[in-house]
Amino acid sequence: MKFDIAIVGAGVLGSFAAYHALKSGKKVLLIDASTKSHGATVRNFGQIVPSGMNLTLWRNLGRRSLELYRELSSLMPDALWQQGSLYVASSEEEAGLLEEMHEINRETDYSSKLITPTQCRERVPSLSQGYCHGGLLYPQEMSAESVLLMKYLWELLDDQPNLYFKKASPVTSIEELPNGVEVRCSTGNKFMSKHTLICCGHNLNQLFPHLLQTKQMQISKLQMFRTRPIEGIKIPGNLLTGLTIRRYEAFKSCPNYKNLSAPNVDPNYEKFGVHLLFRQSVDGSIIIGDSHEYFAARDTDTLSYEIHQEINSLMIDEANRILNLPHLNIDRIWNGYYSQENSRGVFLKSATENIHLATGIGGKGMTAGPALMERVIKGIFNEIPLEECLLDEY
Ligand SMILES: Cc1cc2nc3c(=O)[nH]c(=O)nc-3n(C[C@H](O)[C@H](O)[C@H](O)COP(=O)(O)OP(=O)(O)OC[C@H]3O[C@@H](n4cnc5c(N)ncnc54)[C@H](O)[C@@H]3O)c2cc1C
Known about the structure:
Blueprint: E1 3-8, H1 12-23, E2 28-31, E3 47-48, H2 57-73, E4 80-82, E5 85-88, H3 92-107, E6 113-115, H4 117-123, E7 135-138, E8 142-144, H5 146-158, E9 163-166, E10 171-177, E11 180-185, E12 190-198, H6 209-212, E13 217-227, E14 238-240, H7 242-247, H8 268-271, E15 277-280, E16 286-289, E17 293-296, H9 309-322, E18 330-341, E19 347-350, E20 355-359, H10 365-381
Parallel strand pairs: 1-2, 1-12, 2-9, 5-14, 12-20
Antiparallel strand pairs: 3-8, 4-8, 5-7, 6-7, 10-11, 11-12, 13-16, 13-17, 13-18, 14-15, 15-16, 19-20
Helix pairs in contact: 1-5, 1-10, 2-10
The structure holds flavin-adenine dinucleotide.
């Protein structure tokens, strides 16, 4: 047997699975269909925000991921940095939720700081005076330039003597045989390993589709854009806004969340799941998004590929309400897709004793993925079926 584990898919989940397996001394085969990362992992904001996650399992995984990212950040300071996350309230009601959240953070020992509208504008001078009713700052949170992060992570993995990285090799079949698991690629290559872990992102119709295409699995299509570098605008770290406070799981634990009145915006924001996030890159360009459209995993033919101008207009209008920006010169617009398991927040399953599936982490993969895969790798090598490895904590 050549490999202790074969990992199929090298997005953030598969790559961190390989990272942890190597750390525990295993011989690893990592296989991806592409020559460079191209999935959700490089199409996102790179906001590492445990503050937005539900307060039990996912925030804890986010907090552990921050530690793991910190270990890596000295090796890749231009790809991973700590400048915090600022949530800005657009109404007194939302500001009230930020106060409640701050209290919850104090009780759960997660650092945050309430700041006044003036302090918000000191941090982000372009914030509109009329928009901002107060802020909650998490100084410990991080941001990633995802394309660079994955480039460096792949290089780091490629350098490890115990890892064989097979790129440009779509896996077409995986079978448990008496002497191990056989992995076959469309290139004609065939590999044997003790365990196989499939981290196939939103590709749910190729390997074990009968297991992956459950009622609880959806594919979400997101749309976002990057501006050209804007001179004189400073947005440190992650900037999250009123519609995000209403959308992110963490805030649902605030006592007054259920009493929020409807936001004062066009109903199409709700229809397209638009909430506004900003992250500035080193060159001064700003990523702005996003929107959410949902498709059943069982019916991937309905998945649309178009960029909607209507969604762009909604995002641009809201961005201009939040920030005093010069004319937004959009450089690039793109879609990203992720799979999302709606009952537990992730799809973890052992198809056989030694073939395991991990995907469906939804919009939290950059935040919680590194720590989740640490647990998954531990579970696999302790012979725990994957669906049980987080059972106590859901
Ligand atoms: C627009 C957008 C914004 C987001 N913003 C954030 C954010 O700010 N913070 C956050 O925490 N999360 C964010 N997310 C979510 C996060 O990006 C995802 O949860 C995460 O990237 C999912 O990683 P993955 O490894 O499961 O999938 P992917 O990154 O899609 O990787 C899957 C990999 O598997 C490979 N693969 C699939 N099938 C095969 C096969 N048969 N053979 C070989 N290889 C195969 C693919 O080539 C691909 O490289 C965002 C997502 C999007 C789309």
